[in-house]
Design a protein that fits this description.
By secondary structure, the chain is α/β, with parallel strands linked by helices. It has 2 domains: 2-183, Rossmann fold (3-Layer(aba) Sandwich), CATH 3.40.50.720; 186-313, N-(1-d-carboxylethyl)-l-norvaline Dehydrogenase, domain 2. Helix content is 47%, strand content 18%. It contains 14 helices and 11 strands. It has helices spanning 10-21, 23-26, 36-45, 86-93, 112-117, 165-173, 185-205, 209-213, 216-235, 244-251, 262-268, 276-289, 295-307, 312-327; strands at 2-6, 29-33, 47-50, 56-59, 63-65, 76-79, 102-105, 124-125, 128-138, 141-153, 177-180. It has a 6-stranded parallel beta sheet. Strand 10, helix 6 (165-173) and strand 11 (177-180) form a beta-alpha-beta unit. Helix 9 crosses helix 10 (244-251). The protein is globular, with a radius of gyration of 19 Å.
Length: 328
């Protein structure tokens, strides 16, 4: 069995590290796709995984590479890249997946399945979301600090009712917590309501979660965006609890005062692309499609654009040029 971990950051490093740790018992070959000095360190020393409750270990994949072209055909593929790298990554994966391949996208976002299907017509793509707090702490090192460390996933909408036993068996043997759902979209939207609202507000105003919660003005922005997303879910036919907005807002009180969102940290880096399209862009597009106004999201999108111009397109062009040159 060939298992690919595409993107070995906090999420891919933790779950990929758990799978890689059990490679011999699984009878599997594990392939990591990473880049830069992080990749060099993994090649030289293996991937170090530290956790808050499961100890620490070093694992060595069958191959660590930055070239998807070097991978064999995959039986299982975990997509753990940022959303701005998703399209180019999926396009390059097409020759490495079959109809029977299981693709699990561990990205934030309510339209990830649709984004993948734009460039991938084969394989089984299982909608999913993940709850974990993990990040790269040094080259070749990943640390899990919090979160439930759990994957929630469901069947490919093109194949409802199917349950991928090889995947569920892999999770069990790798001691990965998971929940198999008949429909993963309510879980995906429930997470999105929280991360989109808090992500947009923290990034736009450069405030921590604690500062947001103690500010009536900023809290109202959070609640307004949550209500917009909840209404979009309803209009999209996704059933969420009636208390989803209040519950999601209260969750913000459970984080340390100084917590920053990953989207906020990306915006703070002037030369780094960010995922505003995943959060704000998705809400605005879906609102237009459903003929629904999303004024709070629109306002923050415009404010964020003034703070840091959107550069996803230039990032994609730059990445494509580098990949083309690297192929020669």
């Amino acid at each position: 069995m060939n298992i690919g971990i595409i993107g070995v950051g906090g999420v891919g490093g933790y779950f990929g590290g758990k799978i890689c740790r059990q490679a011999a018992a699984l009878g599997a070959s594990i392939f990591f796709v990473a880049r830069g000095k992080h990749l060099e360190a993994i090649r030289e020393n293996g991937l170090y995984v530290g956790t808050s409750a499961e100890g620490e270990w070093i694992c060595r994949p069958t191959l660590a590479t930055d070239r998807i072209e070097e991978l064999p055909v995959l039986d299982i593929c975990f997509l753990c890249v940022k959303s701005y790298d998703l399209q180019t990554t999926v396009a390059r994966l097409n020759g490495k997946v079959l109809k029977s391949t299981l693709v699990i996208p561990l990205l934030n976002g309510i339209d990830i399945y649709e984004r993948i299907r734009k460039n991938m017509n084969t394989a089984q793509v299982l909608p999913a979301c993940v709850y974990i707090g993990a990040q790269i702490t040094d080259y070749g090192q990943v640390m899990q600090m919090g979160g439930a460390c759990k994957i929630l996933l469901g069947p490919d909408p093109q194949m409802p009712g199917s349950a991928p036993e090889p995947m569920l068996s892999l999770f069990q043997k790798s001691n990965i917590k998971y929940e198999w759902l008949t429909d993963a979209y309510p879980a995906i939207w429930s997470k999105y309501i929280f991360i989109a609202a808090f992500g947009l507000v923290t990034a736009t105003f450069d405030k921590t979660l604690g500062e947001i919660m103690e500010s009536e003005k900023l809290s109202n922005y959070v609640l307004s965006i949550m209500r917009e997303v909840a209404l979009l879910a309803e209009k999209s036919g996704v059933a969420l609890p009636e208390t989803i907005v209040d519950d999601s807002y209260r969750t913000g009180k459970n984080f340390p005062y100084e917590t920053k969102t990953s989207f906020q940290r990306d915006v703070e880096s002037p030369d780094k692309p960010d995922e505003r399209d995943l959060f704000g862009g998705t809400i605005l597009r879906l609102g237009r499609r459903l003929d629904m106004k999303t004024p709070a999201t629109q306002e923050l999108w415009e404010m964020l654009e003034k703070r840091k111009p959107y550069r996803e397109l230039s990032h994609q062009i730059e990445k494509l040029i580098n990949e083309i040159l690297g192929d020669k």
